[in-house]
């Protein structure tokens, strides 16, 4: 399979993850989703990060300049405070930074998209991350949400953690906690669809950083991806913390860099 084919599979998996996530969180967190002219948009009214309230597939729009204002009006009326556009390769080729700026969107932060063709033997050889990791169920929703938020340096009761916790035990979703001396200190999510394992989010509370949680979580999620029959893994990381080094150490390849463009509504 070619690099472009892998990117296409990864982008479809990412879109599926976001739509599943925001559908699950609609009742508890007032998340929303709309589709206008085949363009899907999701948002979280209580999260001001344009990476978590975004127009997913704008590169498919027949006329971006026409459809984006309609999307913004609908999202704003439903409570969205910010929207983002991610600069995936097709979007950059079709619209680019100049087109995003013309629509009122400016660079917010940069991410790297990673891909790994899964070698089952190599994954199994490196182990499942150790005994400190456990996959969790609904009884630990609040703990999971709190650790996700602390890892993002948000308030313990911020909505982001609750959104990710809303998918616990849904098809395709796996949720993990890592404990240190019996206390949960890191949390992570794996989403599996169509043979793609998306290492969706991982967060470590500040006081537990540097103790190997992210390495353990990568190994455990890849281990579980093999069990699910996946042949491709992906993750997205910001470019300013230790996450890129962790992905590279585990054999992930840089697929592309993308800017998240944001606009306050």
Can I get a quick summary?
The protein has helices at 3-24, 26-29, 64-77, 89-94, 96-102, 120-125, 141-151, 159-165, 213-227, 243-249, and strands at 32-36, 39-43, 54-55, 82-86, 106-117, 133-135, 173-180, 183-193, 196-204, 232-238, 253-264.
Descriptive overview:
The termini are far apart. With 265 residues, this protein is of the alpha+beta class. A hairpin with a 2-residue loop joins strand 1 and strand 2 (39-43). The protein has helices at residues 3-24, 26-29, 64-77, 89-94, 96-102, 120-125, 141-151, 159-165, 213-227, 243-249, and strands at 32-36, 39-43, 54-55, 82-86, 106-117, 133-135, 173-180, 183-193, 196-204, 232-238, 253-264. Strands 1-2-3-4-11-5-10-9-8-7-6 form an 11-stranded mixed beta sheet, sandwiched between helices. Helix 7 crosses helix 8. It is built from 10 helices and 11 strands. Helix content is 37%, strand content 30%. The longest helix has 22 residues, at 3-24. It is globular, with a radius of gyration of 18 Å.
Detail the topology: elements first, then pairings.
Elements: H1 3-24, H2 26-29, E1 32-36, E2 39-43, E3 54-55, H3 64-77, E4 82-86, H4 89-94, H5 96-102, E5 106-117, H6 120-125, E6 133-135, H7 141-151, H8 159-165, E7 173-180, E8 183-193, E9 196-204, H9 213-227, E10 232-238, H10 243-249, E11 253-264
Parallel strand pairs: 3-4, 9-10
Antiparallel strand pairs: 1-2, 2-3, 4-11, 5-10, 5-11, 6-7, 7-8, 8-9
